[in-house]
Design goal:
- The complex is a heterotrimer.
- By secondary structure, chain A is mostly helical.
- Chain A has helices at 2-17, 23-47, 71-89, 99-118, 122-143, 148-176, 185-188, 195-212, 221-228, 231-256, 258-284, 289-310, 313-344, 355-358, 360-373, 380-395, 397-422, 438-456, 459-487; strands at 54-57, 66-69.
- In chain A, strands 1-2 form a two-stranded antiparallel sheet.
- In chain A, a hairpin with an 8-residue loop joins strand 1 (54-57) and strand 2.
- The longest helix of chain A has 32 residues, at 313-344.
- Chain A is globular, with a radius of gyration of 22 Å.
- Mean pLDDT of chain A is 87; it is low at 479-488.
- By secondary structure, chain B is mainly alpha-helical.
- In chain B, helix 3 packs antiparallel against helix 4 (120-139) and helix 15 (334-361) runs antiparallel to helix 17.
- The termini of chain C are far apart.
- In chain C, 13% of the residues are buried.
- The chains are: A mainly alpha, B mainly alpha, C mainly alpha.
- Chains B and C meet through helix 25 of B and helix 2 of C.
């Protein structure tokens, strides 16, 4: 029952908001709803006896409306409900038009994201998966920046095309269930498809996730979309929606096509590592901060995807830890970037510099978030990346070397960007800008606190994941044996 | 073991004091009044020092060799259990005393040095953060805690090098330092990960216990030690990752003294000494270290010969001295390396602080060609600087003599060629140090605009204390030749397993010392003749020089070579990826698919002519074809 | 009901099929070749009814009433459709003063 409440609360609040006029009321109600959802989620996480698979099945009007969770779902749920209060709060600063509509769309996105992470039925998953696109499409289209029509259309069609393959895959899997006539994950997980089917079905299922993540070379929608998107749009996209790709891949690929995963493992890891280096190198010479961070995000996500396919305990733990860590960091980073844009009126690095003199506190906050982004020890990024690189090293030391290049390249481009924004001599054009205000502190301080607290004490998250990661890994061990027999 | 040493659990206080200082000065930097931050920060580090001293005596009187203090579980995932723990043993307590002792003196000195800077509170916050990180580094009970400190000091170094952030060149230097450190750090973290896979633990005690049973020269151990070495090379500024250290002189001088001379750059030495058991198993790595160390020692010393910036000279001398420590490590004489580290911390901190005092007096001027004649104006600085110079040159009985002599002896034991090369480096060191001394303090004052004056007492007292340490620090470890007991080495040997014996024949040793002393005397005389008698002033950058001299003046063009080899291609690659591959290949492919679809639509819609009869006809024909198809198949 | 079924079964099934095919073909040809819209609509009805006839016949022979139920459905749909169709024809007559189907050639692209 609590799952239904968590799922529906945002969208119902959102619909209610459409009836209201006063912007302040709308904002506070939206924020309140998001906070209630966060509290419910935390309550759910603290009360679950164990994080093994739990199904909270609700047969709604005769359909298979099955919700449930395991540790991985809970992490995703936590991430979503943790970030949305901040995303809504970040809308307080600017006088947007159509505030009820915007908040409705944001809450609608939240509901559909929660649906994605809780659905225990592939078809339901697919519906929510596509449902997220609708509000995000409007958020991007109505509040986006330059060239938003073309970019939004491209984003929409690109991801939709990927999803179409997923739909085909789901229907194909459905035909395999035979007399069960079900699309429940629990049934799919028992299919044990023939190995050659798994090898091609892998790509049918993976392509949607590969585009959403995105990994090289399916990433071309991402930099332009991030650059164009509004503050809240980009926070939703980078903070939560990329994690849908990770979640989907974990839900679909590993239990359903384990041999396909093992067959394509090295190919996908190679693609991911190319993405890591490629995006990091590109980020160095970007002049638009948002595009730079978009590429940096792509590098980090690629590393996480590589970890996903390294298929061992450490890499999966690191990956899922990094889900939270990256989400928090990137939201804080994008918030700061927009703060800088609102203050200075530009996103172009060459026009900045010397901002630290006018806004010293902003510089400190940005530096702290940058530290999280470049994975300095005692920030959450380090715990995640350390586990990820450990996992990669277990696969092969060379994979770990290339994955570890983010450490160096990330430091190069992030510090270069920091220097070009904040440091340098006084800039007459920017000397009178306002420093960080109370509302900014309200958003940034908790996010930065999370970054550092999880860096010093990551254990709660790691414990939450322990069992799910173990069971996820066990799925692959038998398949691994099968493949080795198969290859002999 | 923990319980048996009384009060040892107080060890967590040692890093806690600077952390507290950082938080107070950092959060209250806009509220603290002048000097308050400095006094607070210095007090915190001094308290740390007192606690360390207390721990030192407790440990020594307890008769125990080590104690582990576990605070909480940091990362625990599956069979990976990494506690947040401190290891107190003879090596770490030595390092703690150096870090907090020298650190406290430099903090006090900074109160005077940074007095007029508007961001003085930030400065002390960052210095305290650095001290905290450095203490984590030396106190960590496993490689990952060490790594926290390792990256932490790198980050603080980044902050402090770029402290005067208005200057883009300083920012560049800061970034360069951080990135070069990170290159090493990648090697280091991979080494740690391999260690974990090999021993299922990263804790020092467990790794070393298990490693003792391993075969020497195993490829895995060699790989691990080389990866750890990469980290040490980055942090301790060895060839090929040394170029950041001279640039790091952009930071305020106390920073150069604390971070880039006494503590952070020696972290690599500490780490390898700590891992002595592993390195003893990897003779290949040890040989690499001998080569790297010796090459760095001589190479940096040669560059130091023709530097005209007082801090750059000292920076290259630091690189060179670190090379000696690496040489000692490579020879398996770990405790000698740590001993040289200790004496170097004393005399190099002293030299840097002295240089700071000079720069302070000269109103920010760092070019030694413009100084001169400061001996009478700044007597305390002169005397302390002289003590430091004598110590670094290895003149008995100053501290540098004992430590350097130990390393030279080990080199001689290994091979006479090594000894000759190492001695050559030491002679060059002696020459450029006396060149510096004579140019700065002797002759006539060459800059008219400056009005040099002795620094305030808050700056001179740390100088005096450090000079006492630099003069007498060597007596910690008097070799048996002079009737000593090698107390320092023995003390360390409870934590370090050296590969070589520390004894050699007395007659050979005396011969070697005599020979080197004679050469040193000659070198000092040469320097005196050139720079005092003939009053030679080094040529300006634009005047014509011989090719070789020019190459030295330009630091063998290493910075330019790196720029053409790495920085420019990187920028080019970035542009190439973005402007060619991303914009001209990948993006158009996707767009092309969309365009293709709509073009296909253009073609297909031509069937729609609008003639109803044709539609009917097509429909019927289609149905018929379908029926035929079904019937046939 | 029984009586009707047995009455239908008096005539062999082949005859029903033959008649239906003939009616359907006539209707189809009419749709394909006539240009008068009203005639086309009438031919459509003819095709509908041929199908209805067949459904009824099969239904009787299989003694399964479902077929005849469908017939009623089809009749209703056909009635609705012809109502719309005829109104279109009326509009067409008003606008272009003709019921020639080939005048409605703007329905393209």
């Amino acid at each position: 029952m609590i799952l239904i409440i968590i799922l529906l609360l945002p969208v119902i609040t959102g619909l209610f908001l459409l009836l209201l006029r006063n912007p302040a009321t709308v904002r506070f109600i939206a924020l309140g709803s998001a906070l209630v959802n966060l509290i419910l989620t935390l309550g759910l996480i603290s009360t679950v006896p164990s994080t093994t698979y739990t199904i909270d099945s609700t047969h709604f009007m005769g359909t298979q409306f099955t919700l449930g969770y395991d540790g991985i779902s809970l992490i995703m749920l936590l991430l979503t409900n943790l970030l949305f209060p901040f995303i809504i709060l970040s809308g307080f600063t600017r006088a947007h038009i159509k505030i009820p509509v915007l908040n409705f769309l944001i809450l609608f996105t939240q509901s559909s994201l929660i649906g994605v992470f809780l659905a225990q039925n592939a078809f339901l998953f697919y519906i929510f998966w596509e449902l997220t696109l609708i509000p995000v499409y409007f958020i991007l289209l109505l509040w986006g920046g330059e060239n938003r029509r073309a970019v939004t259309l491209k984003f929409f069609i690109y991801t939709l095309t990927g999803s179409l393959f997923l739909l085909f895959g789901i229907i194909y899997l459905y035909t395999w269930t035979g007399s069960l006539h079900t699309t429940d994950f629990s049934a799919f997980n028992q299919l044990h498809l023939p190995a050659d089917t798994q090898t091609w079905l892998f790509w049918i299922l993976f392509i949607a996730f590969a585009i959403k993540l995105p990994i090289f070379p399916f990433h071309t929608w991402q930099p332009s979309t991030y650059t164009m998107a509004s503050k809240q749009g980009v926070m939703i996209l980078a903070g939560v929606m990329t994690k849908m790709g990770i979640y989907g891949a974990l839900r679909f690929l590993f239990p359903i096509v384990p041999q396909g995963v093992l067959f394509w493992q090295n190919t996908v890891i190679t693609m991911c590592l190319i993405g890591v280096v490629y995006a990091s190198v590109i980020a160095f010479r970007q002049t638009n901060i948002k595009r730079l961070i978009a590429f940096s995000s792509m590098a980090h996500i690629s590393l996480m995807a590589a970890a996903m396919f390294a298929l061992n305990y450490y890499s999966l733990q690191g990956l899922l830890f990094q889900v939270i860590s990256h989400g928090v960091t990137i939201v804080a980073l994008f918030y700061l970037v927009h703060l800088i844009q609102e203050r200075t009126g530009t996103l172009e690095l060459p026009q900045m510099g010397g901002l630290k003199l006018a806004a010293p506190n902003m510089a400190i906050l940005l530096l702290m978030v940058v530290l999280g982004s470049i994975a300095l020890p005692l920030t959450s990024g380090f715990v995640g990346e350390f586990l990820i690189i450990t996992g990669l090293a277990k696969q092969s030391i060379w994979i770990a070397v290339f994955g570890g290049l983010t450490m160096i390249l990330g430091a190069i481009y992030m510090l270069y960007a920091y220097q070009r924004i904040m440091l340098g001599d006084e800039n007459p054009a920017l000397s009178k800008i306002k420093d960080v205000q109370v509302i900014d502190y309200l958003i940034l301080i908790p996010l930065i606190a999370i970054i550092f607290i999880l860096g010093v004490y990551p254990q709660p998250i790691l414990n939450l994941l322990e069992e799910s990661v173990n069971s996820m890994q066990k799925l692959l061990i038998p398949a691994n044996e099968v493949v080795t027999l198969f290859l002999r | 073991m923990v319980a048996s040493i009384p009060y040892i659990t107080l060890a967590w206080l040692v890093p806690a004091f600077p952390l507290l200082g950082f938080l107070i000065t950092g959060l209250g930097k806009n509220r603290l009044k002048h000097n308050q931050a400095g006094i607070l920060a210095s007090t915190m580090v001094a308290l740390s020092f007192l606690t360390s001293l207390f721990l030192f005596f407790t440990l020594r009187s307890s008769g125990q060799e080590s104690a582990t203090i576990t605070l909480f579980n940091w990362i625990s995932a599956g069979d990976m259990k990494i506690p947040f723990a401190f290891l107190i043993d003879h090596l770490s307590i030595t390092m703690m005393l150096i870090v907090t002792g020298v650190g406290a003196l430099i903090h006090i000195y900074s109160i005077g040095y940074m007095h007029d800077d508007e961001r003085v509170n930030s400065f002390f916050a960052q210095m305290n953060l650095f001290t905290f990180s450095m203490l984590l580094l030396v106190m960590g009970a496993n490689y990952l805690i060490l790594f926290i400190g390792w990256e932490g000091v790198g980050f603080c170094s980044y902050l402090l090098i770029g402290f005067w952030f208005k200057n883009p060149e300083f920012n560049y230097a800061a970034r360069k330092a951080f990135v070069m450190n990170r290159i090493g750090d990648l090697g280091f973290i991979l080494g740690i990960i391999l260690l974990f896979f090999t021993f299922k633990s990263v804790s020092f005690t467990e790794v070393f216990t298990q490693a003792a049973t391993l075969q020497a020269g195993a490829p895995l151990i060699t790989l691990i030690t080389i990866l750890l070495l990469v980290g040490a090379v980055g942090k301790s500024a060895q060839i090929p990752l040394y170029t950041w250290l001279p640039d790091a002189m952009a930071g305020p001088t106390p920073v150069s003294a604390l971070i880039h001379a006494a503590t952070m750059v020696t972290a690599g030495i500490y780490m390898i000494a700590r891992s002595s058991i592993l390195y003893n198993l990897a003779p290949i790595t040890l040989n690499i270290m001998i080569g790297l160390g010796l090459a760095t020692a001589i190479f940096a010393a040669i560059i130091g010969l023709r530097q005209n910036d007082i801090k750059k000279v000292l920076a290259y001398s630091t690189v060179s001295q670190l090379g000696y420590m690496f040489l000692a490590l490579g020879l398996g004489a770990y405790s000698s390396a740590v001993f040289h580290l200790t004496t170097h911390a004393f005399f190099k901190a002293l030299l840097f602080l002295g240089a700071g005092s000079i720069i302070h007096a000269m109103g920010g001027e760092q070019d030694i060609r413009k100084m001169g004649g400061l001996r009478k104006k700044m007597p305390i600085t002169y005397l302390t600087f002289l003590a430091g110079t004598l110590a670094i040159s290895g003149i008995p009985p100053f501290s540098g003599f004992f430590s350097k002599d130990l390393i030279l002896n080990h080199a001689f034991e290994s091979s006479p060629i090594l000894y000759i090369l190492a001695l050559g480096g030491a002679l060059i060191t002696c020459f450029y140090m006396f060149r510096l001394l004579y140019l700065v303090f002797f002759g006539n004052q060459r800059l008219d605009t400056a009005h040099p004056h002795e620094s305030p007492r808050v700056m001179t007292i740390p100088l005096i204390i450090l000079s006492i340490l630099a003069v007498f620090g060597g007596f910690l470890n008097i070799p048996s030749l002079f009737g000593g007991e090698s107390g320092f080495s023995d003390f360390l040997h409870k934590a370090i397993t050296s590969k070589v014996t520390e004894e050699m024949g007395a007659s050979t040793e005396i011969g070697l010392i005599a020979a080197s002393l004679a050469l040193l005397g000659f070198i000092i005389f040469m320097a005196y003749r050139t720079y005092v008698k003939k009053s030679v002033i080094p040529a300006g950058d634009k005047e014509s020089q011989s090719v070789f001299a020019k190459a030295i003046s330009n630091k063998f063009y290493i910075d330019q070579i790196y720029a053409t080899l790495f920085e420019k291609p990187f920028g080019f690659l970035s542009d190439f990826f973005f402007k060619q591959i991303e914009i001209k290949v990948l993006d158009p492919i996707i767009d092309e698919i969309g365009i293709l679809t709509s073009k296909l639509g253009d073609q297909v819609r031509k069937l729609q002519q609008g003639i109803m009869s044709f539609y009917f006809f097509a429909m019927v024909a289609g149905i018929l074809l379908f029926i035929i198809f079904i019937l046939i198949v | 009901m029984k009586e009707i079924s047995s009455a239908i079964q008096l005539i062999p099934l082949e005859n029903y099929i033959g008649l239906s095919v003939a009616l359907f073909s006539i209707g189809m040809m009419g749709v394909l070749f006539r240009r008068n819209t009203i005639a086309i609509l009438m031919c459509l009805e003819l095709m509908f009814n041929s199908v209805n006839l067949l459904l009824t016949a099969f239904s009787a022979y299989h003694s399964d009433p479902a077929g005849q139920v469908f017939v009623f459905f089809i009749m209703i749909v056909a009635a609705a459709e012809i109502a719309i169709g005829l109104s279109i024809v009326v509009m067409m007559k008003r606008n272009v003063d003709s019921v020639d189907i080939n005048l409605l050639n703007r329905l393209k692209w």
